[in-house]
Amino acid sequence: MWIEIICGLIVYRLFRRFFFDDDILDVETSDSSALFLVADRIQKLYGGKVYVGLRIPDADTGSRQTIDMVLVTKGELVVISVKNFSGFVSVGGDGSWVCEKAGKHRADRHPDPVAEARKQASILESYLEKRGVVLPEEYISFKVILPNPKLCIIPGSFFPSEVITYEQWVQLKPGPKSMLSSWVKSAFRGGKKEMQESVQQNLDFILSTAPIWDRLELKGSKYILGEFLEFKGKQEDVQALRNIKRSKVDRLIIQKTSMFGLAHSRLQVLYALRDYRTEGTSTLEWKEVNVRSSTEIIFQPDNSSKVRKFKLSSVTSMTLSA
């Protein structure tokens, strides 16, 4: 019996080794994937443009402030913080949030997300002013969204109006006739003066060229934000990918696989050369290389001390910050 069990474990490990990327399994419920699901729904509901994973320079600290997402419409700019918390949550006496999960003896404490979002909005506004865009009064606002269905609000807990609970989140609908909560009316349907078209274009340009986290899109619509470090694999494959650097490349796409036996499967990698022109519409210049599917991307996820490895066969695309 023990022989059968050991043989089964060996077969299982070999199966995972060749057909699955262990680091992919950790991304199933990641905060980054939740972030992009929220961004997709926000844009579908309210139009405009959503910018995800910004890293805005903070002049006061000399560091970069991570902003989950920014929604830009003709009537408003909204800084949105997405907290993928689960379990039972309450607000502590010091304003911090306390999350308790079944089976855990110790609760997790998080800094006040509302205070964090308020600070992010202030940093972003200062950054925009330094780049030549002064927003109209009360044009910028901020929200905290709790999209995880496994989060329960402890009765009696007080959350500011800027917080959007899961129950409110799933009830959102587009259109003025729908039963929308007041925060939507104020944050997305406000009757504020529309910005002039030229100012709006400048705002979109600044946010589209602002520093961001590098982004990995994996098969199955999973996302990871962080920092691309390097490629690893056979020397000839790494050499073929040598031109894919953030100083030169904006984005790469894994287009298709050519199969010549499992050990020799190859991928077609398309990458777009970075365009530094600031005026007018330009066409990206795409290059192509073919490498083994076992070639790996070494990636450092945001808010994680563990470096991850992802086979190119599990990656759909990668976007690099300038």
From TrEMBL:
Lineage top rank: taxon: Eukaryota
Record protein name field: Uncharacterized protein
Species annotation: Bauhinia variegata (Purple orchid tree)
